[in-house]
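Cross-posting from the chemistry board since nobody answered there.

I work mostly on the small-molecule side, so proteins are not my area. We synthesized nicotinamide-adenine-dinucleotide and want a rough idea of how it might sit in this target. Sequence and SMILES are below. Is it possible to get a predicted 3D structure of the two together?
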Amino acid sequence: MTVLITGGAGFIGQHLARRLVADGHSVLALDTLLGQVHVDPQASVAAFPGPVIVGDVADASAWTDLPQVNAVVHLAAETGTGQSMYEVERYHRVNVEGTARAGAFAADRGIPLVALSSRAVYGEGRHGCLIHGVAFGAPCCAHTAPEASREADPHHPVSVYGETKSEGEAALGPVGAAVPVTIIRPQNVIGPGQALHNPYTGVLAAFLAMLKEGKPLTLYGAGTQTRDFLHVEDLAALIAWALATPPQPGRPRVLNAGSGVRTTLLELARYAAAGAPVPTYGITHLDIHRAGDIDHACADLTLVRAVGAPLPRWTTADAVADFVAASWDKTGAPASAWDGALGELRERGLTS
Ligand SMILES: NC(=O)c1ccc[n+]([C@@H]2O[C@H](COP(=O)([O-])OP(=O)(O)OC[C@H]3O[C@@H](n4cnc5c(N)ncnc54)[C@H](O)[C@@H]3O)[C@@H](O)[C@H]2O)c1
Ligand SMILES: [Zn+2]
């Protein structure tokens, strides 16, 4: 089949495209080649194994003259959590309107849609409590422990990015009645090809820059925050499965995507340091909290397992080492760029 991948020139899109082509499919991308993501747009286009149509998913005219395709994977999005807190309109336009237009296109053409949402819709997510049972969004009292988020859990986004992802999912409601719709909520996706220049995303890219410059790894806070890291190949396999195994129209499907393993940022820093070909300069802590940041995130994979979707194969340590090895010789933004992004938040009163 021929698959239209919006945002196909980006990190996940490039991996997915190669995976689909290896499986015998054809791909084309619809992508604005956003400057914040693509330092060398020509190289991004050249790397994509199919035609790249330059267009904005939030723009109605971008959807009118597209060639015949058999399915759509909607990846195009603005993805900076911190940046979303002040670029509110831009994030709404691309992530909500753009998703609604992707849905309308799939419904019009009568073809299946796989759309990437995010674990950001859960916000602080699920907490188990000895006294109160389960709490969502924020811990109810001091007797809670974070638990893995399930697909049916309520949405409690704490960032504008998360809000736009939640609204984007809602915008697909009517589409799911007409054509097969799968919504996937990835945790933190890592791997070769991840943006090294975009200081608005990616703690791991920041660690890489610090390691290369012989600087200690800076953690915001104690480093006890947890995340779930998924290798991009494992996500590509899940999306490929969703395309090959569409749900019934009228029964839209939502799936988590993660490793199901909780990793502290301190552990992540150690994995990154262990994967680097140079000695490391330890870890420093910056006592700061960024608006939009959450403490804990982890995916519950019960449903993924139950529907027979492929489970992740990469361990977190191996996934981090793969990213570091593949990225070591690539140029990226200097570590100071992440200080700059933090400075922008601080100036706007979005840190505490
Ligand atoms: N990388 C992660 O950790 C992660 C986690 C959860 C969800 N996601 C979701 O996965 C999807 C892909 O993310 P990614 O990591 O590959 O990001 P990315 O920034 O590498 O890729 C996004 C692509 O979308 C393009 N784009 C941006 N705005 C556009 C617009 N208006 N019209 C057309 N194209 C546009 C960009 O040029 C880029 O090529 C996004 O929807 C993101 O929210 C990613
Ligand atoms: Zn409680």
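Reply from a structural biologist on the board:
Welcome over. Reading the output above for you: The CA atoms of residues 87 and 256 lie 27 Å apart. The chain is about 35% helix and 20% strand. Happy to explain the token format if needed.
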